Amino acid sequence: MTPHFIHQLVIYTICNVTGETPKNVSALDRVELNTRDWEQVFSRLEATLDIQTGMLTSVERAFSIDALMLLLHTRLTDDIVT
Fold first, then answer.
1. Among 9, 41, 57, 67, which residue carries the largest CB count within 10 Å?
2. How far apart are CA 12 and CA 24, in angstroms?
3. Is 73 a member of any domain?
4. Is this prediction's pTM over 0.70?
5. How many domains does the structure of the chain reveal?
6. Which of 68, 59, 57 is nearest to 29 (CA)?
Protein backbone atom coordinates (compact mmCIF):
# COMPACT_ATOMS: atom_id res chain seq x y z
CA MET A 1 0.00 0.00 0.00
CA THR A 2 1.28 3.41 -0.88
CA PRO A 3 1.44 6.21 1.67
CA HIS A 4 -1.10 8.13 -0.45
CA PHE A 5 -3.57 5.23 -0.31
CA ILE A 6 -3.13 4.95 3.46
CA HIS A 7 -3.60 8.71 3.83
CA GLN A 8 -6.86 8.51 1.86
CA LEU A 9 -7.99 5.46 3.87
CA VAL A 10 -7.44 7.33 7.13
CA ILE A 11 -9.47 10.30 5.88
CA TYR A 12 -12.21 8.01 4.56
CA THR A 13 -12.41 6.17 7.90
CA ILE A 14 -12.58 9.39 9.92
CA CYS A 15 -15.34 10.72 7.65
CA ASN A 16 -17.25 7.45 7.80
CA VAL A 17 -17.22 7.50 11.61
CA THR A 18 -17.75 11.22 12.26
CA GLY A 19 -19.86 12.29 9.30
CA GLU A 20 -17.39 15.06 8.44
CA THR A 21 -16.56 15.82 4.82
CA PRO A 22 -13.17 14.81 3.37
CA LYS A 23 -12.49 18.49 2.65
CA ASN A 24 -13.01 19.43 6.31
CA VAL A 25 -10.91 16.55 7.62
CA SER A 26 -8.10 17.16 5.13
CA ALA A 27 -7.90 20.80 6.19
CA LEU A 28 -7.08 19.91 9.81
CA ASP A 29 -3.50 19.87 11.13
CA ARG A 30 -4.62 17.56 13.91
CA VAL A 31 -7.78 15.53 14.18
CA GLU A 32 -9.39 15.48 17.61
CA LEU A 33 -12.02 12.83 18.36
CA ASN A 34 -14.22 11.96 21.29
CA THR A 35 -13.61 8.59 22.93
CA ARG A 36 -16.31 6.73 21.00
CA ASP A 37 -15.16 8.04 17.62
CA TRP A 38 -11.51 7.39 18.51
CA GLU A 39 -12.26 3.75 19.29
CA GLN A 40 -14.32 3.36 16.11
CA VAL A 41 -11.68 4.93 13.84
CA PHE A 42 -8.79 2.89 15.18
CA SER A 43 -10.78 -0.31 15.46
CA ARG A 44 -11.78 0.02 11.80
CA LEU A 45 -8.28 0.92 10.64
CA GLU A 46 -6.71 -1.98 12.52
CA ALA A 47 -9.32 -4.41 11.21
CA THR A 48 -8.99 -3.16 7.62
CA LEU A 49 -5.20 -3.29 7.66
CA ASP A 50 -4.97 -6.41 9.87
CA ILE A 51 -2.41 -4.76 12.18
CA GLN A 52 -2.17 -3.56 15.75
CA THR A 53 -1.11 0.05 16.28
CA GLY A 54 -1.55 0.49 20.02
CA MET A 55 -3.55 3.63 19.26
CA LEU A 56 -6.87 2.06 20.20
CA THR A 57 -6.01 2.27 23.89
CA SER A 58 -4.09 5.56 23.75
CA VAL A 59 -5.25 8.21 26.21
CA GLU A 60 -4.58 11.00 23.72
CA ARG A 61 -7.52 11.72 21.42
CA ALA A 62 -5.80 13.88 18.80
CA PHE A 63 -3.39 13.01 16.00
CA SER A 64 -1.83 14.25 12.80
CA ILE A 65 -3.12 12.42 9.72
CA ASP A 66 0.35 12.58 8.15
CA ALA A 67 2.03 11.15 11.26
CA LEU A 68 -0.58 8.39 11.45
CA MET A 69 -0.09 7.59 7.77
CA LEU A 70 3.65 7.18 8.36
CA LEU A 71 3.03 4.95 11.39
CA LEU A 72 0.60 2.76 9.45
CA HIS A 73 2.89 2.56 6.43
CA THR A 74 5.76 1.51 8.69
CA ARG A 75 3.62 -1.19 10.34
CA LEU A 76 2.52 -2.50 6.96
CA THR A 77 6.01 -2.61 5.48
CA ASP A 78 7.81 -3.75 8.64
CA ASP A 79 10.20 -0.84 8.23
CA ILE A 80 11.60 -0.19 11.69
CA VAL A 81 13.52 2.92 10.61
CA THR A 82 11.38 6.05 10.86
1. 41
2. 12
3. yes
4. yes
5. 1
6. 68
CB atoms within 10 A of CB 71: 18
The answer to whether residue 14 sits within a structural domain is: yes
Q: What is the DSSP letter of 54?
A: S
Give the structural domain span for 72: 3-77
Tens digit of each residue's pLDDT (9 = 90 or more) over 46-70: 999 999 888 888 888 999 999 999 9
Residue 68 lies in a domain: yes
Residue 82 lies in a domain: no
Q: Is 11 exposed, middle or buried (0-12, 13-18, 19+ CB in 10 A)?
A: buried
How many CA atoms, within 13 angstroms, populate the side-chain half-sphere of residue 70? 7
